[in-house]
Amino acid sequence: MSEPSIFFSDVNERQGSFLRRTFVVGGLTALGITALTVRLAQLQVVQAEEYATLATNNQFNFRLVPPPRGRILDRNGVVIAGNRPSFRVLVVRDETKDLDQTLDLLGRLLPDTVDRRRAIIRDVNAAPRFSPVPVKSDLTWEEFAKVNIYAPELPGVMADMNEARFYPFGGSFAHVIGYVAKVSDRDVQAIKDRGEEVPQILYNPGFRIGRSGVEKALDSDLRGEAGGTRVEVDARGRVVAEDVGGSRPAVPGKDVVLTLDADVQNRALEVFGEESGGCVVMDIRNGDILCMTSAPSFDPNLFVSGVPTATYRALSDYERKPLLDKAIGGVFHPGSTFKLTTSLALLEAGVDPTERVNCGGGYRFGNRTFRCWSRSGHGPQDMHDAIKNSCDVYFYHMCNRAGVDGIHDAARKIGFMQTFDIGVGNQKTGSIPSRAWKAEYNKDNPNPDSRTWYPGETLSVAIGQGDVNVTALQLAVMVSRIANGVKALQPRLIKSVGGVDRPSGAAVPDLPFSREHMDVVRQGMVAVANDRSGGAYRQSQLGLGDIQMAGKTGTAQVRSYDNVASRSSSSVGWALKDHNLFVAFAPVDAPRYGIAVIVEHGGLAGSTAAAPRAREIMRTVLLKDPEMRARIERPLPPAAEGAALGDDEAFGAAPEPDAPATTVQTPPRAAPTATTGPRPYLSEPR
Q: Which residues pair with 470 in a beta bridge?
């Protein structure tokens, strides 16, 4: 057994170890104090201003304030799109303890929010932090008061008053003005795709942008500049005070003045009633559009806060398409109104307007007989009579003297196949066939004959059928240029933006047609509306003193009438009825206004539906004109007292057939030539 060993430590050795540990710990402590001192010096001296700014930003937030949207006014200063006060309730996600519970409590106060719960949660979750999200707008005073009473029990819920877009005339301007709606992800992405910076105001959940019409086209001008409110917040981001001095007011959007007249626009929609179609009225002196109506319409106020799905589906599924702008976005066969353009093409091709064609009710071309609308025929017709009676046979017989390319060129010069810079999009160009057009249209067809134009196809083009498609705006431009007779007028819809006037539509080159040729066409239109045998005599009497209107009717078929005994539309469905059209200008002796009316599926003959409506709209336009009103109120000269209109005629009604004739005196025309050929062979109806 070994003996235990006893070890004795040296005192000097232990003291040396202690001193080493003290030196290491002391050095580390000194190094830490030195680093802390340097850091404090950096924070308090070098970066003092930077951190003071950060501290202030933590204490104060700058919240964007949406600007008031600019107003849209008519030519007389009447507000047709403005802003109105609106109570609303908002939710701030970061201030709620439980969003679901908060929405449950809110649903008891505002039951209609229950149906929109999923959409509300989606909007709240997508909003930036501490950003108020509108849950419901246009609260009644009772609802607004109720929310404020229960506000202490609804954390994160607040009610306030803001400005909402308002359209006082409802559907009268719905298509031309458009409407505003919430900003979508596609709107933001479209801005990014253009390489532009997305304005921060677009991320505000309550902000609205233009979705269609003028609201969309001039959105950047109407939008204005966002302001900001500087508010003091606590550690949780809740507002505790507002710094008025640090706030910046929003800059309202610019006011936009249109050339439209609210009274004429309202009257146009009124006279359409339940019919479908479009109407455009132009001032032929400067191109100003006084009316651009599409019927049926819709209430754009429904779209401001978000239209219910059921309502939108009802509008989109209705066969008369109230969401479609039929003035510029719908194309129609112009029917016989296009004969005015065909006449100009024939005159440009050297056709003598006094040359006569015998109309026996049909025209034989090749192995087919093309029927005139009058089965019994019109007899001998020159160009004046053919326009007055809307004789199809005359234009069948003459059209290939100009050819389809000649008609195409005249149509382009008079205003077809183009869109106009009126400040709004969604315009259709329509189509007027030509040889090149057919070749391009059928370029993928393996049959080479499909790309060849045949003279027989020109017959349908000459009377505004076949592949001829136009808009109401193009028809209004056509009739306005014919009535003006000199200038190739351009339509103007935007009168001024922010007080800066837009160019006049009269600052344009002259028309490439001779004045003599324009006179021939105008005199034919005068006879249509004022000669007792004209196609729209009874429907064109304005009853406004000595002011008369000149016009041209049109009927565009939408189905084949082969082997059909009658073209009466009384027994067919709405979608199978013919379109009704009427173009006109007034006054006859000093043209001032042009009008084009299309009644979609209005029935047989343009004089039955379109002409009476055009007359009522034109009456409103003339009565609104101070010079025209003075002329109307001026007493007739003594020599005309015996020829003054009777009581019935004062309201636009034509005299009975046995009453004395009051036809317009037209300049004498040269003696007609002999008929161009034997009476055509008649065949089955077209």
A: 332
